[in-house]
Amino acid sequence: MKYVLAEDFPSVVFFLKHLLVERIGVDPKDIESVGNSDDLLSLVGKEEYRNAFLLLDLSMPGRYRRLVLVKELFRRNTSLKIVVYTAYHSAHLAKDLLQQGIAAYVTKGSSPDVLITATRAGLSGKSSPTRA
Predict the structure, then answer these.
(1) Which of 17, 61, 64, 104 could join 69 in a cystine, given CB atoms 3.0 to 4.6 angstroms apart?
(2) Which residues neighbour 47 within 8 Å (Cβ) at sequence distance 6 or greater?
(3) Using only C-alpha atoms, what is the Rg of the chain?
């Protein structure tokens, strides 16, 4: 399985990679990171990213953000397992994204345990409660 970290801040990428490796047990070779929505869309459109797991920041440089970005991601790759990890505290946005098919919506102010629980739920194919 491929794992994608879509985040434009290197310190957050470092944290997310550490979380995946140390707490979830992911092989670091299976993790790819991108810092803008254009590169992300190109990446997930590749065949080897079918059924990939994506930790997604909703506001990165590039043409797409928030709900439009998620819709475009699913249009290009319907098999993605997406957990949104964002600074946006919006129950309405969380609801709209969950209706689109994301596994969880976690705000960056949440504890690491909330993100770990959401990640495990997303990997198992289940939805997780949101934290908005």
Answers:
(1) 64
(2) none
(3) 13
The count of domains in the chain is: 1
Q: What is the pTM assigned to this prediction?
A: 0.92
Let me know: does 20 contact 3? Beta carbons within 8 Å: yes
Task: Identify whether 112 is part of a domain.
Answer: yes
Q: Which domain holds residue 12?
A: 3-124
Rounded Cα distance between 125 and 4, Å, is 16
Residues 6+ apart with CB under 8 A from 8: 35, 36, 57, 60, 61
pLDDT digits (tens, 9 = 90+) for 54-89: 999 999 999 999 999 999 999 999 999 999 999 988
The residue among 62, 72, 79, 117 whose CA lies nearest residue 97 is 72
Structure tokens at 85: 């990890």
Determine the Cα–Cα distance for residues 4 and 51; give it in Å rounded to an integer.
11
Residue 73 lies in a domain: yes
Does a structural domain hold residue 78? yes
Distance in angstroms (rounded) separating the CA atoms of residues 116 and 70 = 21
